[in-house]
Design goal:
Elements: E1 9-13, H1 18-34, E2 37-43, H2 60-84, E3 90-95, H3 99-110, E4 114-119, H4 125-130, H5 133-140, E5 144-149, E6 159-164, H6 170-184, E7 187-194, H7 199-216, E8 220-226, H8 230-240, E9 245-249, H9 264-271, E10 276-279
Parallel strand pairs: 1-2, 1-4, 2-3, 4-5, 6-7, 6-9, 7-8, 9-10
Antiparallel strand pairs: 5-10
Helix pairs in contact: 3-5, 8-9
Length: 302
């Protein structure tokens, strides 16, 4: 369990939009507290569009230009950050596979502990069908993911909400929660929430985690509610008490009821305005939801 008591390498996904700014600043503040290094990452996907004649509509010249532009832009960001925060080691990486495959390669090569990505918290029709980049990262990478809402300035986590809603990896989740609370001099609010499934088991797990916090002398308080609307209850609790961070386990117990319904993750992302840390053990494989490219068949004359 030692790997959950240290954060040494943070990867922040850069897409050169406004939502990246808050995510990058959060990475900086976390790196200072944990004495960690930062990898600034951008992905240039080699996509293509082909009609029935077999013509490639997006060629290597375009990809090469995008790669060079991204390389130059990342270097400018790195140099600017290095001048302001010379106590942090900054690295740059560019991927050319799907975004999740690219990040997973870096996670393995550079021993990344946590990935930070910005999110607008808005799901349009395209994102609903293909998945937004933040949702793809959340479901596809092989380590914990911290989603930073666009425009958020919660860089220090003094009030941390830790829901107990599923039984998987609770001990590991508690360890990383205590680590973050320690580095931020923060308070943990243990929030048990049970629906119709496994209410007794959830309550027992909640009590066990509560006792563990007491033994560790971590500042905390606890509460327990019964509800099947877990995402709604967690969002409401975070707003009522103005929490700085919510720590969740990567376990999606809500299956899609229909093509257009929202699962637990998307409800949480769309209905909270604070950073969300989804704890994910490295032995839980990611699922790459991305297409490798766009293969669009156009009408062929004649």
């Amino acid at each position: 369990m030692e790997k959950y008591t240290k954060i040494k390498t943070i990867l922040v996904a850069i897409d050169f939009t406004v939502k990246t700014d808050s995510a990058t600043m959060l990475a900086v503040h976390m790196a200072r507290r944990h004495k960690a290094r930062i990898i600034l990452f951008h992905n240039v996907m080699k996509f293509f569009i082909i009609d029935r004649t077999g013509r490639q509509m997006v060629g290597e010249d375009t990809i090469s230009k995008q790669y060079n532009d991204a390389e130059n832009s990342l270097e400018l960001i790195k140099n600017s950050l290095q001048q302001s925060y010379n106590d942090i080691e900054f690295l740059t990486r560019i991927g050319t596979d799907t975004i999740t495959n690219s990040i997973n390669k870096i996670i393995e090569e550079d021993s990344v502990d946590i990935v930070i990505t910005g999110t607008s918290g808005k799901q349009g029709l395209r994102e609903l069908i293909l998945g937004s980049s933040s949702y793809q990262i959340l479901t596809g990478v092989n380590c914990s993911v911290l989603l930073m809402p666009e425009g958020s300035h919660k860089y220090k986590f003094e009030k941390i909400l830790v829901p107990v809603r599923v039984l998987e990896k609770l001990n590991e989740k508690l360890e990383i929660s205590k680590l973050i609370a320690e580095k931020n001099k923060g308070l943990i609010s243990l929030f048990g929430i049970s629906g119709d499934e496994n209410p007794t088991a959830i309550r027992r797990a909640f009590i066990k985690m509560r006792e563990s916090l007491k033994v560790s002398n971590t500042e905390h308080y606890t509460s327990f509610v019964v509800s099947n609307d877990k995402a709604v209850e967690i969002s409401k609790a975070s707003k009522d008490a103005e929490f700085d961070l919510i720590i969740l386990t990567y376990q999606d117990e809500e299956s899609w009821k229909s093509f257009f319904s929202e699962n637990f993750f998307k409800q949480i992302i769309n209905n909270t305005s604070v950073p969300l840390l989804f704890f994910k053990d490295s032995d839980i494989p990611g699922q790459d939801p991305e297409p490798a490219g766009y293969d669009i068949t156009l009408p062929f004359p004649g």
